[in-house]
Specification:
This protein has 351 residues and is an alpha/beta fold. The chain has a single domain, classed as Rossmann fold, CATH 3.40.50.11900. It has 13 helices and 8 strands. A 4-stranded parallel beta sheet has the order 2-1-3-4, sandwiched between helices. Helix 8 links the parallel strand 5 and strand 6. The longest helix has 26 residues.
Length: 351
Protein backbone atom coordinates (compact mmCIF):
# COMPACT_ATOMS: atom_id res chain seq x y z
CA UNK A 1 0.00 0.00 0.00
CA UNK A 2 1.31 3.44 -0.89
CA UNK A 3 2.22 5.63 2.04
CA UNK A 4 0.14 8.76 2.78
CA UNK A 5 1.13 11.90 0.88
CA UNK A 6 2.17 13.71 4.05
CA UNK A 7 5.01 11.20 4.44
CA UNK A 8 6.61 12.28 1.18
CA UNK A 9 9.82 14.28 1.33
CA UNK A 10 10.94 16.16 -1.76
CA UNK A 11 14.44 16.23 -3.24
CA UNK A 12 16.04 17.30 -6.53
CA UNK A 13 19.63 15.98 -6.75
CA UNK A 14 21.25 12.57 -7.22
CA UNK A 15 23.58 13.24 -4.27
CA UNK A 16 20.66 13.33 -1.81
CA UNK A 17 21.02 10.69 0.98
CA UNK A 18 17.79 8.82 0.31
CA UNK A 19 18.85 6.23 2.87
CA UNK A 20 18.50 8.77 5.66
CA UNK A 21 15.17 10.05 4.39
CA UNK A 22 13.78 6.51 4.32
CA UNK A 23 15.30 5.74 7.73
CA UNK A 24 13.39 8.72 9.16
CA UNK A 25 10.13 7.18 7.95
CA UNK A 26 9.60 9.33 4.86
CA UNK A 27 9.17 8.32 1.23
CA UNK A 28 11.71 10.21 -0.90
CA UNK A 29 9.95 12.03 -3.72
CA UNK A 30 12.12 13.42 -6.49
CA UNK A 31 10.61 16.54 -8.00
CA UNK A 32 11.18 15.57 -11.62
CA UNK A 33 11.18 18.38 -14.21
CA UNK A 34 8.19 16.90 -16.03
CA UNK A 35 5.10 19.10 -15.93
CA UNK A 36 2.38 20.80 -17.94
CA UNK A 37 2.43 23.74 -15.53
CA UNK A 38 2.90 27.12 -17.26
CA UNK A 39 6.26 28.90 -17.20
CA UNK A 40 6.09 31.23 -14.20
CA UNK A 41 9.65 31.00 -12.95
CA UNK A 42 10.70 34.24 -14.65
CA UNK A 43 9.15 36.24 -11.84
CA UNK A 44 11.70 34.73 -9.40
CA UNK A 45 14.73 33.58 -11.40
CA UNK A 46 16.69 34.78 -14.44
CA UNK A 47 15.56 33.34 -17.78
CA UNK A 48 19.06 32.12 -18.66
CA UNK A 49 19.18 29.61 -15.82
CA UNK A 50 19.17 25.81 -15.69
CA UNK A 51 15.84 24.51 -17.12
CA UNK A 52 15.90 21.65 -14.60
CA UNK A 53 15.72 24.15 -11.74
CA UNK A 54 13.14 26.32 -13.48
CA UNK A 55 10.74 23.45 -14.20
CA UNK A 56 10.95 22.24 -10.61
CA UNK A 57 9.91 25.71 -9.49
CA UNK A 58 7.18 25.78 -12.16
CA UNK A 59 5.73 22.63 -10.61
CA UNK A 60 5.57 24.30 -7.22
CA UNK A 61 4.12 27.54 -8.60
CA UNK A 62 1.59 25.62 -10.69
CA UNK A 63 0.33 23.42 -7.85
CA UNK A 64 1.71 20.33 -9.60
CA UNK A 65 3.13 18.65 -6.49
CA UNK A 66 1.69 16.33 -3.85
CA UNK A 67 1.76 17.50 -0.22
CA UNK A 68 5.34 17.32 1.06
CA UNK A 69 6.59 17.22 4.64
CA UNK A 70 9.69 19.12 3.48
CA UNK A 71 12.24 19.41 0.69
CA UNK A 72 15.96 18.60 0.86
CA UNK A 73 18.13 20.64 -1.50
CA UNK A 74 21.78 19.76 -2.07
CA UNK A 75 24.09 22.70 -2.74
CA UNK A 76 25.46 20.91 -5.82
CA UNK A 77 25.66 23.97 -8.08
CA UNK A 78 24.81 27.65 -8.06
CA UNK A 79 21.52 27.07 -9.89
CA UNK A 80 20.36 24.60 -7.23
CA UNK A 81 21.26 27.08 -4.52
CA UNK A 82 19.21 29.74 -6.32
CA UNK A 83 16.32 27.26 -6.44
CA UNK A 84 16.47 26.92 -2.67
CA UNK A 85 16.49 30.71 -2.28
CA UNK A 86 13.41 31.01 -4.52
CA UNK A 87 11.65 28.08 -2.81
CA UNK A 88 11.81 29.86 0.53
CA UNK A 89 9.75 32.72 -0.90
CA UNK A 90 6.86 30.51 -2.05
CA UNK A 91 3.65 31.18 -0.14
CA UNK A 92 2.59 27.98 1.60
CA UNK A 93 5.61 26.08 0.30
CA UNK A 94 6.94 23.04 2.15
CA UNK A 95 9.80 23.74 4.58
CA UNK A 96 13.24 23.26 3.08
CA UNK A 97 16.85 22.70 4.04
CA UNK A 98 20.03 23.30 2.03
CA UNK A 99 22.85 20.80 2.60
CA UNK A 100 26.32 21.82 1.47
CA UNK A 101 28.02 19.27 -0.80
CA UNK A 102 31.82 19.23 -1.22
CA UNK A 103 33.25 18.88 -4.72
CA UNK A 104 36.08 16.54 -3.65
CA UNK A 105 36.19 13.26 -1.73
CA UNK A 106 39.26 13.80 0.46
CA UNK A 107 39.15 13.26 4.22
CA UNK A 108 38.46 16.92 5.18
CA UNK A 109 35.54 16.91 2.73
CA UNK A 110 34.23 13.63 4.16
CA UNK A 111 34.40 15.03 7.70
CA UNK A 112 32.61 18.21 6.67
CA UNK A 113 29.89 16.35 4.77
CA UNK A 114 29.36 13.99 7.71
CA UNK A 115 28.59 17.05 9.81
CA UNK A 116 26.12 18.24 7.19
CA UNK A 117 24.39 14.84 7.27
CA UNK A 118 24.09 15.08 11.05
CA UNK A 119 22.49 18.50 10.59
CA UNK A 120 20.09 16.95 8.08
CA UNK A 121 19.21 14.25 10.61
CA UNK A 122 18.12 16.90 13.10
CA UNK A 123 16.01 18.59 10.42
CA UNK A 124 14.31 15.33 9.41
CA UNK A 125 13.41 14.62 13.02
CA UNK A 126 12.05 18.17 13.43
CA UNK A 127 9.84 17.64 10.37
CA UNK A 128 8.16 14.70 12.07
CA UNK A 129 10.50 11.90 11.18
CA UNK A 130 11.54 8.96 13.31
CA UNK A 131 14.68 9.30 15.47
CA UNK A 132 17.66 8.58 13.26
CA UNK A 133 19.48 5.96 15.27
CA UNK A 134 22.51 4.22 13.73
CA UNK A 135 20.47 1.02 13.42
CA UNK A 136 17.75 2.79 11.42
CA UNK A 137 20.32 4.45 9.12
CA UNK A 138 22.07 1.13 8.46
CA UNK A 139 18.69 -0.46 7.72
CA UNK A 140 17.94 2.34 5.24
CA UNK A 141 21.31 1.73 3.57
CA UNK A 142 20.59 -2.01 3.33
CA UNK A 143 17.17 -1.38 1.79
CA UNK A 144 18.55 0.92 -0.89
CA UNK A 145 21.44 -1.43 -1.58
CA UNK A 146 18.88 -4.18 -2.20
CA UNK A 147 17.05 -1.90 -4.63
CA UNK A 148 20.37 -1.06 -6.29
CA UNK A 149 20.97 -4.78 -6.85
CA UNK A 150 17.58 -5.14 -8.56
CA UNK A 151 18.19 -2.08 -10.73
CA UNK A 152 21.64 -3.39 -11.69
CA UNK A 153 20.06 -6.66 -12.83
CA UNK A 154 17.55 -4.65 -14.85
CA UNK A 155 20.37 -2.58 -16.38
CA UNK A 156 22.13 -5.78 -17.42
CA UNK A 157 19.02 -6.93 -19.30
CA UNK A 158 18.61 -3.54 -20.94
CA UNK A 159 22.29 -3.32 -21.91
CA UNK A 160 22.13 -6.84 -23.36
CA UNK A 161 19.06 -5.93 -25.40
CA UNK A 162 16.88 -8.71 -23.94
CA UNK A 163 14.08 -6.51 -22.55
CA UNK A 164 11.54 -5.13 -25.00
CA UNK A 165 11.58 -1.32 -25.07
CA UNK A 166 14.33 -1.67 -22.47
CA UNK A 167 15.82 1.85 -22.04
CA UNK A 168 12.42 3.55 -21.79
CA UNK A 169 11.07 1.02 -19.32
CA UNK A 170 14.28 1.21 -17.32
CA UNK A 171 13.74 4.97 -17.00
CA UNK A 172 10.18 4.28 -15.83
CA UNK A 173 11.72 2.10 -13.10
CA UNK A 174 14.16 4.87 -12.14
CA UNK A 175 11.31 7.38 -11.90
CA UNK A 176 9.31 5.02 -9.69
CA UNK A 177 12.35 4.39 -7.51
CA UNK A 178 12.76 8.14 -7.04
CA UNK A 179 9.13 8.89 -6.20
CA UNK A 180 7.42 5.79 -4.76
CA UNK A 181 7.85 3.54 -1.70
CA UNK A 182 10.64 0.97 -2.02
CA UNK A 183 8.30 -2.03 -1.91
CA UNK A 184 6.29 -0.72 -4.86
CA UNK A 185 9.41 -0.12 -6.94
CA UNK A 186 10.90 -3.52 -6.08
CA UNK A 187 7.71 -5.27 -7.24
CA UNK A 188 7.73 -3.29 -10.50
CA UNK A 189 11.38 -4.15 -11.23
CA UNK A 190 10.90 -7.84 -10.41
CA UNK A 191 8.00 -7.96 -12.85
CA UNK A 192 10.23 -6.51 -15.57
CA UNK A 193 12.98 -9.00 -14.80
CA UNK A 194 10.48 -11.88 -15.05
CA UNK A 195 9.50 -11.00 -18.62
CA UNK A 196 10.75 -13.38 -21.33
CA UNK A 197 13.76 -12.32 -23.36
CA UNK A 198 13.02 -10.22 -26.42
CA UNK A 199 15.70 -9.85 -29.11
CA UNK A 200 17.20 -6.48 -29.99
CA UNK A 201 16.89 -4.78 -33.36
CA UNK A 202 19.97 -5.99 -35.30
CA UNK A 203 20.07 -2.77 -37.33
CA UNK A 204 20.18 -0.39 -34.35
CA UNK A 205 23.47 1.36 -33.56
CA UNK A 206 24.81 0.97 -29.98
CA UNK A 207 25.54 4.31 -28.29
CA UNK A 208 26.69 5.38 -24.85
CA UNK A 209 24.61 8.17 -23.28
CA UNK A 210 25.73 10.39 -20.40
CA UNK A 211 24.76 13.74 -18.94
CA UNK A 212 22.57 15.21 -16.24
CA UNK A 213 18.76 15.20 -16.42
CA UNK A 214 16.72 13.21 -18.94
CA UNK A 215 13.81 11.66 -16.98
CA UNK A 216 11.09 11.24 -19.63
CA UNK A 217 10.92 7.61 -20.88
CA UNK A 218 9.64 8.90 -24.23
CA UNK A 219 13.07 10.44 -24.84
CA UNK A 220 14.57 6.95 -24.94
CA UNK A 221 11.87 5.76 -27.34
CA UNK A 222 12.79 8.75 -29.49
CA UNK A 223 16.42 7.60 -29.65
CA UNK A 224 15.20 4.16 -30.74
CA UNK A 225 13.04 5.73 -33.46
CA UNK A 226 16.21 7.43 -34.74
CA UNK A 227 17.91 4.04 -35.11
CA UNK A 228 19.98 4.19 -31.90
CA UNK A 229 20.24 1.62 -29.15
CA UNK A 230 21.32 3.02 -25.79
CA UNK A 231 23.82 0.31 -24.87
CA UNK A 232 24.54 1.94 -21.50
CA UNK A 233 23.92 5.27 -19.81
CA UNK A 234 25.04 7.44 -16.91
CA UNK A 235 22.55 10.15 -15.99
CA UNK A 236 21.71 11.83 -12.69
CA UNK A 237 18.05 10.99 -13.35
CA UNK A 238 19.04 7.34 -13.79
CA UNK A 239 21.78 5.01 -12.61
CA UNK A 240 23.75 7.67 -10.72
CA UNK A 241 21.04 8.02 -8.07
CA UNK A 242 20.98 4.33 -7.14
CA UNK A 243 24.60 3.29 -6.72
CA UNK A 244 25.37 0.84 -3.89
CA UNK A 245 26.59 2.37 -0.64
CA UNK A 246 29.39 0.33 0.99
CA UNK A 247 29.16 1.24 4.67
CA UNK A 248 30.43 -1.12 7.34
CA UNK A 249 28.16 -1.85 10.31
CA UNK A 250 30.88 -0.89 12.77
CA UNK A 251 31.64 2.63 11.51
CA UNK A 252 29.96 5.93 12.24
CA UNK A 253 26.91 5.98 9.94
CA UNK A 254 27.24 9.66 9.00
CA UNK A 255 30.93 9.44 8.18
CA UNK A 256 30.48 6.16 6.31
CA UNK A 257 27.55 7.52 4.32
CA UNK A 258 29.45 10.74 3.57
CA UNK A 259 32.48 8.83 2.29
CA UNK A 260 30.33 6.53 0.13
CA UNK A 261 28.28 9.34 -1.42
CA UNK A 262 31.29 11.53 -2.19
CA UNK A 263 33.23 8.55 -3.53
CA UNK A 264 30.59 7.24 -5.91
CA UNK A 265 30.72 7.63 -9.67
CA UNK A 266 31.07 11.40 -10.11
CA UNK A 267 29.19 13.86 -12.26
CA UNK A 268 30.65 16.99 -13.86
CA UNK A 269 30.36 19.09 -10.70
CA UNK A 270 32.75 16.75 -8.83
CA UNK A 271 36.49 17.37 -9.07
CA UNK A 272 39.43 15.07 -8.41
CA UNK A 273 42.56 17.25 -7.97
CA UNK A 274 44.84 14.27 -8.67
CA UNK A 275 43.00 13.44 -11.91
CA UNK A 276 41.43 16.65 -13.26
CA UNK A 277 40.16 14.98 -16.46
CA UNK A 278 38.96 11.82 -14.78
CA UNK A 279 35.43 12.31 -16.12
CA UNK A 280 36.77 11.98 -19.67
CA UNK A 281 38.53 8.71 -18.83
CA UNK A 282 35.43 7.38 -17.06
CA UNK A 283 33.25 8.10 -20.09
CA UNK A 284 35.77 6.54 -22.46
CA UNK A 285 35.99 3.37 -20.33
CA UNK A 286 32.20 3.10 -20.03
CA UNK A 287 31.70 3.54 -23.78
CA UNK A 288 34.27 0.84 -24.54
CA UNK A 289 32.74 -1.55 -21.99
CA UNK A 290 29.31 -1.04 -23.55
CA UNK A 291 30.63 -1.70 -27.04
CA UNK A 292 29.30 1.66 -28.17
CA UNK A 293 30.12 2.98 -31.63
CA UNK A 294 29.53 6.55 -30.54
CA UNK A 295 28.84 8.71 -27.49
CA UNK A 296 26.01 11.17 -26.88
CA UNK A 297 25.97 13.74 -24.11
CA UNK A 298 22.59 15.20 -23.20
CA UNK A 299 22.82 18.20 -20.91
CA UNK A 300 20.34 20.88 -19.99
CA UNK A 301 21.08 24.39 -21.25
CA UNK A 302 23.21 26.72 -19.14
CA UNK A 303 24.73 23.83 -17.11
CA UNK A 304 28.13 25.33 -16.32
CA UNK A 305 29.70 22.19 -14.74
CA UNK A 306 29.09 20.13 -17.88
CA UNK A 307 30.00 22.88 -20.30
CA UNK A 308 33.31 23.30 -18.45
CA UNK A 309 34.17 19.59 -18.68
CA UNK A 310 32.97 18.74 -22.17
CA UNK A 311 36.00 20.08 -24.03
CA UNK A 312 38.20 17.52 -22.24
CA UNK A 313 35.66 14.76 -22.91
CA UNK A 314 35.41 15.65 -26.59
CA UNK A 315 39.20 15.74 -26.98
CA UNK A 316 39.72 12.37 -25.25
CA UNK A 317 37.08 10.66 -27.36
CA UNK A 318 38.53 12.24 -30.50
CA UNK A 319 41.97 10.87 -29.61
CA UNK A 320 40.48 7.39 -29.49
CA UNK A 321 38.48 7.81 -32.68
CA UNK A 322 35.06 7.66 -30.99
CA UNK A 323 32.44 9.99 -32.52
CA UNK A 324 30.73 12.37 -30.08
CA UNK A 325 27.45 14.28 -30.25
CA UNK A 326 26.35 16.99 -27.80
CA UNK A 327 22.65 17.65 -27.29
CA UNK A 328 21.32 20.51 -25.16
CA UNK A 329 17.71 20.61 -24.01
CA UNK A 330 15.25 22.19 -21.62
CA UNK A 331 13.80 19.02 -20.02
CA UNK A 332 10.99 18.79 -22.59
CA UNK A 333 10.40 16.29 -25.38
CA UNK A 334 9.93 19.23 -27.71
CA UNK A 335 13.55 20.29 -27.30
CA UNK A 336 14.97 16.83 -27.95
CA UNK A 337 12.55 16.32 -30.85
CA UNK A 338 14.07 19.35 -32.52
CA UNK A 339 17.37 17.43 -32.60
CA UNK A 340 16.00 14.55 -34.72
CA UNK A 341 17.96 15.42 -37.87
CA UNK A 342 21.25 15.66 -35.96
CA UNK A 343 20.66 12.37 -34.14
CA UNK A 344 19.62 10.51 -37.29
CA UNK A 345 22.66 11.84 -39.17
CA UNK A 346 24.95 10.80 -36.29
CA UNK A 347 23.47 7.30 -36.25
CA UNK A 348 23.69 6.98 -40.03
CA UNK A 349 27.35 7.99 -39.94
CA UNK A 350 28.07 5.10 -37.56
CA UNK A 351 26.40 2.35 -39.58
Amino acid sequence: MEEPDHHRLGFACAYTPLQMIAAAGFTPYRVLPMTEAPDRTGRLLHDNLCPHVKRILDRALGGDLPPLAGVVFMNSCDAMRRLHDAWRTLPGGAPSVLIDLPVTADEPSVAFFAGELERLAGTLEAWGGEPLTPARIFRGIEEYNALSTLLTALADRVDNGTLKDGPARQQEAFNRAATAPLSETAAFVRALLAEPADGRDPDSVPLYLFGNVLPDPEAFRFFADCGARIAASDLCSGTRLFQPIPVGAGEDPYRGLARAILGQRPCARTFDPAHPVRIAEDILDAARTAGARGVICHTVKFCDPYLARLSAVRLRLQEEGIPFLLLEGDCTLRSIGQQRTRIEAFVEMLR
